[in-house]
Amino acid sequence: MLEPVSEDAVLITLAEAIDDALPARITRLTQSLHDANLPWLRDLVPSYTTLLVVYDPVRVDFREVTSRLRAIVKADNTQTERTVQATGDLVELPVYYSVESGPDLAALAAETGLSTAEVIARHSALEYRVHALGFAPGFAFMGEVDPTIAQPRKPTPRKRVPAGSVGIANRQTAVYPQASPGGWQIIGRCPVRLFDPQHLSRLKAGDRVRFRAISREDFLAAGGELTEICEP
């Protein structure tokens, strides 16, 4: 579905609900639009189920934009589901899961009736899709976590969550690429740098991510830091 959202933007909605195949499909559609070399195209903003297309209204009118977009979307729809599922890199991220590095781990375990070891095992057992990037540069929203460990955001966000913090918010999981305020349930920390201005984001929409539990010693050896979290 295509709909105008402003005088210079059209929203392409590909589905009504999050699906594991969508990030790869949206990434491919974004690439197709880039490859089309449309002179009036200004920006593309992917999200969970949509792609926002920003265009230059001085160079083109809404009717021509929607006509071109429909043709490109139709061509994209001819791609097979197998092709969609095959796209995206597989990225493994080491995580030091502990009460020391994840201040919400014990409380989340108690809330779900699981041991901390079971929470860690269930979080690291799945392969996650990167559905969207936002909130902060390089912040990748991934899903979906095992429903038995899904927990809502904290009612009051923390003032500072260290870079590398691994969190859960409902059925989503993410790694904070930089220190920032945040309200996710923090269960561990990753030593891998996920964003820097020169190389941009380590992750992109459509990528697949697996988390691997590591020891405190391995975390520190990989350059991880155990800086404190600032509570509200």
UniProtKB/TrEMBL annotation:
Segments forming a coiled coil: none
Against NCBIfam families, the record matches this protein to:
5-oxoprolinase subunit PxpB
Where would I find the Carboxyltransferase domain in this sequence? 2-203
Stated name of the protein? Allophanate hydrolase
Q: What are the record keywords, sorted?
A: ATP-binding, Hydrolase, Nucleotide-binding
Q: Which InterPro entries match?
A: CT_C_D, Cyclophilin-like_dom_sf, PxpB
Respond yes or no to whether keyword Plastid is given for this record.
no
Q: Does the keyword ATP-binding apply?
A: yes
GO terms (molecular function) for this protein are: ATP binding; hydrolase activity
Taxonomic path = Bacteria, Pseudomonadati, Pseudomonadota, Gammaproteobacteria, Pseudomonadales
The highest taxon in the source lineage is Bacteria
